[in-house]
UniProtKB/TrEMBL annotation:
Signal peptide: none annotated. Coiled coil: none annotated. The gene is tenA. InterPro entries: Haem_Oase-like_multi-hlx, Thiaminase-2/PQQC, Thiaminase_II, Thiamine_Salvage_TenA. CDD domains: TenA_C-like. This is Aminopyrimidine aminohydrolase. Gene3D superfamilies: Heme oxygenase-like (1.20.910.10). It catalyses: thiamine + H2O = 5-(2-hydroxyethyl)-4-methylthiazole + 4-amino-5-hydroxymethyl-2-methylpyrimidine + H(+); 4-amino-5-aminomethyl-2-methylpyrimidine + H2O = 4-amino-5-hydroxymethyl-2-methylpyrimidine + NH4(+). It comes from Pseudonocardia kongjuensis. It holds the Pfam family TENA_THI-4. Pathway: Cofactor biosynthesis; thiamine diphosphate biosynthesis.
Length: 222
């Protein structure tokens, strides 16, 4: 029996996923050791990221050959903007920061690089390539949420974040995109599949870099 496309993609990034789970930003969510300043940096940068991510999802929606996929990615783009406005406003409030102050904070290097990459892949590549590029932000977050929810966090802010990404509603969203990925993967050439794998691996690396940048409270060096 042939492997699903999702299984092939995941096999490429298992070592990256393990490094994400071991990163002190992620482990610090459950043991409470993550400084609030680092989490504040993360939430601000995630708000910047989600605005770019939503644009990449709209490109996927426009390129989708199937009406159901067009609807799905368009809804997810709207959902990304809603998450940026609602969840982040809530979390930023708990961190003593307003959404206006967050918007005024510069986009950090990892955020800029990640957003630039997914937009370039979505605009410049095929529909399949765009989906592969945006997939880690869905899937790795669900995997991290699943990993962390069993332990939980002593910090209510961190627990709120864990609950969102470990929740059934988010899991259903991710499952729908994974089903689309498997359908797409069954129709592409070997060359296009190779490009999907390359994009998926690169943006999985950006996921690690995004958390690492937040942990270090990364700013531009010059």
């Amino acid at each position: 029996m042939a492997h699903r496309t999702r299984d092939l993609l995941w096999s490429d990034v298992e070592p990256i996923h393990e490094k994400i789970l071991a990163h002190p930003f992620v482990t610090g969510l459950t043991d409470g050791s993550l400084p609030h300043d680092a989490f504040r940096h993360y939430i601000i940068q995630d708000a910047h990221y989600l605005r770019g991510y939503a644009k990449a999802l709209t490109v996927c929606a426009a390129k989708a050959p199937d009406d159901d996929d067009t609807v799905m990615f368009a809804e997810h783009a709207a959902g990304a903007i809603a998450a940026e406005r609602e969840l982040h406003t809530d979390l930023l409030g708990g961190l003593g920061l307003t959404s206006e102050e967050a918007r005024a904070t510069p986009v950090a290097p990892a955020t800029s690089a990640y957003v630039s990459y997914i937009l370039a892949a979505a605009h410049g590549g095929s529909y399949a390539e765009g989906v592969a590029a945006v997939l880690p932000c869905y899937w790795i977050y669900a995997k991290v949420g699943e990993h962390l929810v069993g332990t939980g966090s002593p910090d209510p802010l961190y627990q709120r974040w864990i609950d969102m990404y470990a929740g059934e509603e988010f899991r259903a969203v991710v499952d729908a995109v994974l089903d689309a990925t498997d359908r797409i993967g069954g129709t592409v050439s070997d060359t296009e599949l190779d490009r999907m794998r390359a994009h998926f691996t690169t943006t999985s690396r950006y996921e690690w870099m995004f958390w690492d940048g937040a942990y270090r409270q990364e700013t531009w060096p010059v």
